[in-house]
Design goal:
four-stranded antiparallel sheet, 14% helix, 48% strand, Hemopexin, mainly beta, 7 helices
Length: 221
Amino acid sequence: MVDAAYHIPGRKSVYIWSGRQYARIDFEPGGTEEHLVSGPRSIASGWTTMAEKGVGRVDAVVPVPGHKDQLYVFFGGKYLKIKLDDKLHDSFVNKDALPISHGWKALAKAGFDTVDAAMLVPGTTTQMYFFRGLNYLRWDNDKDEILNGPSPIKDGWPALAASGFDVVDAVFAHPEYDDVFYFFHGDKYARIKVDRSSRHDSIYSAAKPISAGWKTLDGWV
């Protein structure tokens, strides 16, 4: 199972986390070309920030709105805020690993004291979607407040529901289109388009087995 994923800005490259391992993969969107750049290897051996804070498994990774080189890493009931330099070396933005209930109080009060997946809302500069279990919500990171939800994924994301995704394990942005996203659930993935204005979702490419579309994940995801 894919636990978390993160598209590296400006590259056709993605980090994938599964269990206690991760890998970096270069790929051609919509094509069959892909190859492992590094990994799979232990999270502790490749991420100094996560190793220092004792991160064993990663639940979700999402870009920090407005900061292409920064990312939030959610693990258990905690999160880190880190950044990547041009050579993809990681360092802390905020040194502490904080409970979600401390840094995202409204999120925790809504029942999102852990996070399964998260993504930026296309067409905005401050908003994010969070997924946990069967529910999702839309969040404004500048205002530190929930804009709508929590609501069932099946009600707010009909294309995801039609793809058989009532839960989201991981999501990352398409390298070329900021309104298309790769969603993962169980042993399948799908590409979903999110309209920038209406925020309605549609199927960009139908759900497939991960094994059919991501050969680089065979044997460890």
